[in-house]
Amino acid sequence: MKKKMVPNAYSLIPSQQTMYFMLKYSLHKQVMQIPMSLTVNQKLDFDVLQKAVEIECERNDSMRLRYFKEKGEVKQYFLPEYKIGKIPVVTFKSKDEQEKYLTEDAQKPIRFLKDEVYRIIFFRSYNGGSGIYINVCHLSMDATAVFLFFTDVLNVYNALKDGKEMPEPLYSFKDIIDKEFKYLANKERYAKDEAFYREYFLKDGEPFYAGVHGMDLLEKERKKKKNPNLRVPSAFDPIHDKANLMQMTIPKADADKIMSFCKTNNVSPACLIQMGLRTHVSKINERNPDVYFMELCNRRVTYKDKLTGGCVTQPLPVRAVISEDKTFDDALQQLSDIRTQVYRHMNYPYMASRHLVQEMFNYGMTASPSSMMFTWLPLEFDCGKNWEYEFTGYSMGRYIMPLYAFSMPNLKTGGIDFYYMYRTNTISEEQIKALHKGALNTILKGIKNPSITVGQLLNTI
Question: Residues 126, 238: one domain?
Answer without folding.
Answer: no
